[in-house]
Design goal:
The protein is α/β, with parallel strands linked by helices and 436 residues long. Among the domains are: 6-169, 3-Layer(aba) Sandwich (Rossmann fold), CATH 3.40.50; 174-263. 48% of the residues lie in helices and 12% in strands. The protein has helices at 13-25, 39-49, 65-69, 85-92, 106-119, 157-160, 174-184, 189-207, 217-230, 233-240, 249-263, 279-292, 294-302, 308-323, 337-347, 352-359, 363-370, 377-387, 427-435; strands at residues 29-33, 54-58, 70-75, 78-83, 95-99, 121-124, 130-133, 139-144, 165-169, 325-326, 329-330, 400-401, 422-423. A hairpin with a 5-residue loop joins strand 6 (121-124) and strand 7. Helix 1 (13-25) crosses helix 2 (39-49). The longest helix has 19 residues, at 189-207. It is globular, with a radius of gyration of 27 Å. The structure holds adenosine-5'-diphosphate (ADP) and magnesium ion. Magnesium ion binds at residues 39-40, 99, 143.
């Protein structure tokens, strides 16, 4: 990571002052803010001002207590306790940054408790509970994204209260952001202003739940840097911002309309890249992708026993229908997870927005889930939980009737009693897999 100096950081004067105070007076500090708002860089910059050694630890749900504290290991044929980064930092008096603290699992939180509890020590469970007190120069910072991020856990109020200070990092004002872009990259002021303005509008849409992609200052810097070389707002936008929105087609549309409006000066951009795919083209590309994978589906289905070919054909047909475009969007699926969600939602009399609020995530997640193109297992899990519906069960191998009685043009059916075809893989499962 490029280490910024204090003077390189724009628009965060108050927060920098508080970080400075935390470093002086040993305030354990939690910093909350969207990704790319300079949380880590601000701690680095201030810690450098104080000539401190920094130990940064990135936490995930899988990070174990021993990765922080240490564990027994073999060194030169001898079994010894190898200290982890947190233990070393406590002994030597480093500034520790615990990134993504809200991802920490119970084991890690347990390790941190005596440290945060004014006890200022940790207990090495791998070394008979040896106590390691914090050096007087030890300082602790933790960072996290706002709790509304999908997939992040909320910190318990009890845990939060153990920090002496909680700072909030927000995106800086467009004027300051534009200034930053001009100072750091080789671009004109008016282009920088356009970029900062676009970012501001897109962030508003994000806050309103209208899109999932959030444009950070870091993203803007990438855009400005590429534009500095290519001298094309549009080409550099596509490569650094637009194509980042891989999680959502809705977002791509929003991003495209923003950039088009912002860069339409009346004169055509000579460097303009070809038109983006329309929804119909996207759907047709998806169809081709499925077609390329038919072999896979057939062989997977062959494992579920009889009538595999018919089921496969029927399934493929269904997928084709689901993804075939009409008008300006894909057909609403008549069956499948999307349809189930829609039906369950309507039964409750909720709008998509209401369901999104209940699930605490942005509305486009719901519309994507309902159109059957959601690629997010977390989202589908949450929706099924909120609506109290089950798509398929883990304990019981799903025995699902594939469609309504199969029509004879799909399955040549000699035996009337076999009109309902059962498979050990449900259509929904296949679809989920295919769309995953
Ligand atoms: N206010 C700002 N002033 C200067 N640079 C910034 C600012 N906000 C973001 N940046 C740039 O974006 C990057 C943000 O990275 P980082 O500090 O890792 O953010 P976070 O930890 O919040 O995800 C920094 O390296 C810096 O280059
Ligand atoms: Mg960070």
């Amino acid at each position: 990571m490029l280490t910024l100096r204090k003077s390189d950081i724009k628009g965060q004067a108050k927060n920098l002052k508080l970080i400075d105070q935390a470093l002086r007076d040993n305030f354990y500090t939690l910093i909350v803010g969207h990704t790319g708002t300079c949380k880590s860089s601000a701690i680095y910059a201030m810690a450098n001002e104080h000539n401190k050694v920094i130990t940064r630890i990135n936490l995930t749900g899988q990070t174990g207590e021993d990765e922080l504290a240490g564990k027994m290991g073999l060194i030169k044929g001898e079994t010894v306790f190898v200290e982890g980064p947190l233990t070393r930092a406590l002994r030597e008096g480093h500034v520790v940054i615990l990134d993504e603290i809200n991802a920490a699992n119970a084991e890690v939180l347990f390790l941190l408790h005596p440290l945060l509890d004014d006890g200022h020590f940790i207990r090495l469970m791998g070394k008979d509970g040896e106590i390691v007190p914090a050096h007087e120069d030890f300082r602790l910072f933790a960072t996290m994204n706002p709790p509304e991020y999908v997939g992040t856990k909320e910190l318990s109020p009890a845990f939060l209260s153990r920090f002496h200070m909680v700072l909030e990092f927000d995106f800086i004002q467009p004027i300051q952001e534009a200034k930053l872009l001009v100072e750091r990259m080789n671009i004109r002021e008016d282009d920088a202003a356009t970029m900062a303005d676009i970012a501001k509008r897109l962030r508003k849409k994000f806050e309103a739940g209208e899109m999932l992609t959030l444009i950070s200052t870091r993203d803007l810097l990438s855009w400005a840097r590429l534009h500095g070389s290519l001298k094309s707002m549009r080409q550099s936008f596509d490569a650094t911002i637009l194509n980042r929105a891989i999680q959502s087609r809705v977002d791509k549309e929003v991003l495209l309309s923003e950039i088009k409006t912002a860069t339409s000066t009346g004169q055509p951009d000579p460097e303009a890249v070809e038109e983006p795919l329309t929804l119909i083209e996207q759907a047709s590309a998806l169809r081709n992708e499925f077609a390329a994978r038919e072999v896979d589906i057939v062989s997977r289905l062959a494992e579920c026993g009889k009538r595999e070919k018919e089921i496969a054909e029927f399934t493929i047909e269904r997928i084709r229908k689901l993804t075939s475009a009409t008008g300006d969007g894909a057909e609403t699926p008549k069956s499948g997870i999307g349809a189930q969600i829609k039906a369950a939602r309507k039964q409750r009399g909720w709008t998509q927005k209401q369901l999104a609020i209940e699930c605490s995530f942005p509305q486009p997640y719901v519309s994507e889930a309902e159109s059957g193109v959601s690629k997010r297992p977390v989202v589908l899990d949450k929706i099924s939980q909120v609506l109290g519906i089950t798509f398929s069960s883990e304990e019981e191998p799903p025995v699902v009737v594939v469609g309504e009685p199969l029509t004879t043009d799909v399955v040549s059916n000699e035996d009337e009693s076999e009109n309902h075809v059962t498979a050990t893989l449900s259509f929904e499962e296949i679809l989920t897999e295919l769309l995953a």
